[in-house]
Design goal:
Chain A has 509 residues and is of the alpha/beta class. The first copy, chain A, is built from 18 helices and 20 strands.
């Protein structure tokens, strides 16, 4: 066992107040679970290439069509359709890096991204926020800041994500607020929403100031990431295409994530939905590599299904699980790090939401996913970020992090002597083997209450959802911003003030 | 794909009212997940044999000690300690059947039990029952009957289990009520609680009457099962030892399940807890085989841990998951079918309870478990069977059953033509590919509500727990007892009346 957690073992442990954990640079401990045979995976991959060659994809940004045309793709300017030969896709896949480091402000917040590594991100992109005290409301800057603090507070969340959209800030200056907040409250890698080159460039410059790097140094490492969603089926819109180009040029991370819900924006079958998703992700990866070979990209899967009675998106369904397992096989076929997506379609932090989130997370982990997105807090299929669900889901995420450590199996762990010491029908509470380990051996729950029914009733019969409120409030109270070098935040604020004075940056649509 | 579900595909499906499922004789679709290396597994196995050889186990029943002594074990009558050489254990393992059929009343309720097959059982052995309408109370005959009906109602529950203890019936006649109820309401295989030879024999005779078989025919097949819990550490009490002997003699199924909670009745380490569990299970299996070679047995794991602050049992913890994965490796080492255990230590049907139940169930399934016990309804670490949790957990169990079918991957499933048919940015709702499949392609949820926040709020903002009440009530209303041949129930009742008149059968302790 690597003992990555740095648990103090032996008698010295008795002096320690509690178990210390370190969930940094986790490696996925699970044997990958296939949904398809190798032949079937190859067939899906080849059929995706056929879609790109024969049917093509509609690309709304002229600059992107130009890049494709220059690379040898067949472009119809009238219909905006782009058809790409498999030779071009293969050339692109050859230059996409299979491993890179996503840099936070410090080594402790930097993560290697490659097949085999395992990171978790909180729910992202929600228009609403909700908690038990303030109810459900459109997301604000206050919510955004609080949620970035909560994402910072949990070691098992590797990077920041756009938990909630701060709708009280006008879009042309919103990116200043979101990037500044991320830089201010956390050392973890921040995200950028792609709403046009001007906003993206603002964010790159802000981050260069914060990390104190030149433009050349900025482009030398991965400092930030964005999520690219295709407009499934077979369409890439203007801001997303521009985002790919801008991020590739600056060698920052693009996560290529089609949004293929089977039965709605994708074929109703698991294999059909995956095949379309694969085609769209390949086109996006190709655009990045044609823009700048070697640009860091991740393959993305968000394949689930809709309820055929209502058209409502569903998550954590058997079809979602199968799709995610299949996506893992396709990502492995490409050799690229990849993200999956989870969460719940439920409307409150109840048993349904927990079951759906578990199903989605287990399928991600078993599929060998590099970055499990929406692993906490995500309700209503992403329409609401719920504070209490962030806490109850963190219990699950921390347990996955714990599972990355294999159990010890040396002679001491096997405990023959301890068994010899304890009489038949007795107990191990007082055994030396127990005393040496009792403070550090077991995972300590965050929100789970294991007290008996009487004690639990006397304490008010609180559900996990109800108990979670005090936990996120405490995390907010305990938060301290990381220290930046002298003058850094001032330079950042001067940049923002200058840009705001110049009118900010309008979003492109 | 086997299409075991018998889904009608193609246009004919449009006429069908809904998707039909068949969760019978499931095969585990997952690649087994190891917790230990092969060498470590071998080392645990060998250390367990050393425990049996050098330390031994206290066996409280004289008849059992006699059987061990006759087989060559070293027995100390004063201390009641039995030490068994590995040659005796190996001889026992050689006669334990690796595959057998557990017979319900019909082929549709019979299940092959072997490594690779996958069955689910509901929560078992709870002193209390609870639901939203009647609250939490000591279990009664009414609860018992209702819960047997609910276990019958769900196809994915393979066999009946002792959900709740009907404490309003005196123990000396309780087994008549529980066996009669199981026979009356369901064709699924019933269980027997071992509380002495007289009660066990009563149950065997009742079941022989119900299945209309002679004693010889009864002993020719597996018609019922019991769970044997050792009194960990290293003690086998009188009713449990007697149960092994009685069941082995009648060639009925004994599931050998030590109750090794790490930190309390077992060493605090995962490997140590497993090693003790393995030793105790091996002794129990050996007793069965020495009693009657070829007696059907299952290996049993219930290894989890306690909270070291309070001593309270915990379930669905990282340590529980690792223990279950390790137990799967040990069962595979023996080649025997095996059961694991799950459920939650929580006090209500909330997110905590769902998370814990999912963790336990996933580890069971990934460990290659043959029979997942306590998969639904189990709260407070088994002190309460909750009706609503039975329903919300069934969603999870049904999803596991769905995952046993691989997704289709033929040309039709890949849907190239459907993708060609739909315009970029369009949707697949009206595609022929969708129309042909929309009634049958997706799993239909039992209790999950995927409606949007507005509709959900208008309908009363009900949690999954609240919605579940109507579902179990409906299942109770819809229930119809299976038909037995003329005179069968009358013969059964005559037997019971005669036995009651003779004073019933006192429990042995």
């Amino acid at each position: 066992m690597s003992d990555r957690r740095g648990r103090a073992r032996g008698k010295a442990a008795a002096a320690k107040p509690e178990r210390k954990v370190n969930y940094h640079n986790l490696r996925n401990p699970f044997v990958p679970q296939p949904a398809f045979s190798e032949d079937e995976v190859e067939n899906i991959h080849n059929t995706s290439l056929r879609v790109l060659e024969e049917l093509g994809m509609k690309v709304l940004l002229p600059e992107a069509r130009e890049i494709f045309a220059k690379a040898g793709a067949i472009v119809d300017e009238e219909t905006e359709m782009v058809r790409i030969g498999r030779d071009i896709v293969e050339q692109a896949l050859a230059t996409a890096p299979k491993s890179f480091v996503a840099h936070g402000a410090k080594p402790e917040t930097s993560h290697t991204m490659e097949l085999g590594s395992l990171t978790f991100m909180a729910g992202a992109g929600c228009p609403h926020a909700s908690d038990r005290e303030r109810g459900r409301r459109p997301g604000t800057a206050v919510d955004f800041r609080e949620l970035m603090i909560l994402e910072d507070a949990f070691d098992a969340i590797a990077m920041l994500g756009p938990a909630v959209e701060p709708q009280d800030i006008p879009v042309h200056i919103r990116h200043y607020e979101t990037m500044r907040t991320q830089i201010e409250v956390s050392d973890k890698l921040p995200f950028v929403f792609c709403r046009g080159s001007e906003q993206t460039e603002d964010c790159f410059q802000m981050l260069s100031i914060a990390r104190e790097v030149s433009r050349e140094e900025f482009e030398d490492k991965v400092w930030t990431k964005t999520i690219i969603n295709t407009n499934s089926p077979r369409q890439l819109d203007i801001p997303m295409a521009q985002g790919i180009i801008d991020f590739a040029r600056a060698k920052q991370l693009c996560v290529m994530t089609p949004f293929c819900l089977s039965g709605a924006m994708a074929p109703i079958t698991v294999a059909g939905g995956l095949m379309l998703q694969h085609a769209e992700a390949l086109l996006a990866i190709t655009l990045a590599q044609m823009t700048r070979p070697g640009a860091p990209v991740m393959y993305g899967s968000f394949a689930s299904n809709v309820d055929m009675k209502s058209g409502a998106p569903a998550f954590g369904t058997p079809e979602h699980v199968k799709s995610t397992l299949g996506a893992g096989q396709l990502a492995k076929r490409l050799g690229l790090p990849w993200r999956s997506g989870g969460g719940s379609a439920g409307n409150c932090n109840d048993a349904q939401a927990a079951h759906e989130t578990e199903m989605a997370a287990w399928s991600s982990v078993l599929a060998g996913c590099t970055m499990v997105v929406h692993s906490t807090g995500w309700l209503e299929g992403g329409l609401t970020f719920n504070y209490e669900k962030m806490v109850t889901d963190m219990e699950m995420v921390q347990q996955f992090a714990e599972l990355c450590d294999k159990p010890e199996a040396d002679e001491a762990a096997l405990a023959f002597d301890a068994i010899a010491e304890v009489d038949p029908g007795g107990h191990f509470f007082a055994a030396e083997h127990t005393m040496e380990r009792y403070r550090t051996e077991f995972y300590e729950p965050l929100v789970a209450d294991w007290s008996n029914f009487g004690s639990w009733s006397e304490a008010g019969s609180l559900t996990a959802d109800e108990r979670a409120t005090a936990i996120w409030k405490q995390k907010l109270e305990e938060h301290q911003n990381p220290k930046r070098n002298e003058g850094v935040m001032e330079s950042l604020d001067a940049f923002i003030a200058k840009r705001k004075e110049a009118g900010g940056a309008e979003a492109v649509s």
